[in-house]
Design goal:
The protein is α/β, with parallel strands linked by helices. It contains seven helices and five strands. This is AAA family ATPase.
Length: 188
């Protein structure tokens, strides 16, 4: 699908929690590509450090509204880069979760105005590598529900969803870059 040329450089990597997104992004960063860390994890770290309540297990709606704001700021800041910019989760994740939680029709209006590349890469459920930690407290079943919600939402926004193969990070990065048609070095 065609979109704003600038945003065609913004590649969203989403999917099941614990499916290897952050590890893939670290590999792309190691190769010199700019990455944008997951808004939710940054918010959780900030809130835990400051004693705030914008946490998914304390006030989910406040957390998701903050995640939408952070994702929009991330997209604005990413405009400073040329070439591919890879996002670990983002606007679609937060907006679809808020809409599912509250029933507020936020997904289509906000995500139609702020677009990523037409091809979105999804990490499938991968129970063998799934772990919880201080920032990811939900279980695998919740992660599966999140994944299914995204798999339902992304096509309604006109995105071509590509499942990432269960491969080591280097091979996954090769797959992403080959799928995007980019064998060339990144432009900083």
């Amino acid at each position: 699908m065609k979109g704003h040329p600038l945003q065609n450089r913004f590649v969203l990597i989403s999917g099941c929690s614990g499916g290897g997104k952050s590890t893939l992004l670290a590999e792309l960063c190691r190769r010199g590509y700019p990455i944008v860390e997951e808004p939710g994890r940054r918010i959780v770290a900030d809130e835990l450090a400051s004693g705030g309540n914008a946490l998914p297990w304390v006030d989910t709606a406040v957390f998701l509204r903050r995640a939408i704001d952070v994702a929009l700021q991330d997209m604005e800041m990413a405009k400073a880069h040329s070439g591919w910019v890879f996002f670990d989760r983002g606007l679609v994740d937060a907006a679809s979760a808020l809409e599912a939680l509250t029933g507020e029709p936020v997904l289509h209006p906000i995500c139609s105005d702020h677009r990523y590349h037409g091809r979105v890469f999804m990490t499938p459920p991968w129970p063998e590598i799934y772990v919880t930690d201080s920032e990811r407290r939900h279980g695998f079943q919740t992660a599966m529900a999140e994944y299914q919600r995204l798999m339902d939402a992304l096509p309604t926004l006109g995105y071509d969803v590509v499942d990432l193969p269960k491969l080591p990070p280097s091979a996954r990065a090769d797959f992403v870059l080959t799928t995007l048609g980019d064998g060339a070095a990144p432009v900083a």
